[in-house]
Write a structure and sequence with these properties.
This protein is of the alpha+beta class. The chain is built from six helices and eight strands; from the N terminus they run βααβαββααβαβββ.
Amino acid sequence: MIKYSIFYLMSGEAKKYRNNLVKEVGPKFGERYVFESKLPAHITLKTPFETKKIREVEEILEEFVKNHQASKIKIVGFGHFKRFVAFLKFEFSKSALRTQSELIKELSKIKNIKIREHDKIWHPHSTISYGNSKKSFNGIWNYLKKLDKPSFEMKFDNITIMKKSRKRWKVYRKFKLK
């Protein structure tokens, strides 16, 4: 089986800001995983799944983007999960939230694509760093809190299939929302 995931790929100044934070924060606090993974700046729309039939996913996405428009999203600050993951926090417009929810409903129609709790109860974010110890997380979080609150507006304008190849995720196919 081949492993895939579905992302929204960030662009523009927001992408540059996120990438610069990743390059700076993780290594500064000895938490290099996000930096070394070289994942593009993204928000996960569908958690990783395995399939031999990616064509089914592609067909659904080809139709899906024809019926959904690009919508607004904003970076509104920093957040964290369980004092472990530090991330950029997003605010999605109602239409953007609906797009992700409808995407998951469409993908759930594919036999053998497992829809997880994180897909249904979605918390849009872009990971900056993991703090694998209380000390490193506290250092990361205290550093982020001292920065000016980031504020970027973007268009939720793509749905991108990522494919895991060896230990790296690579763009497999990008679909543009109209």
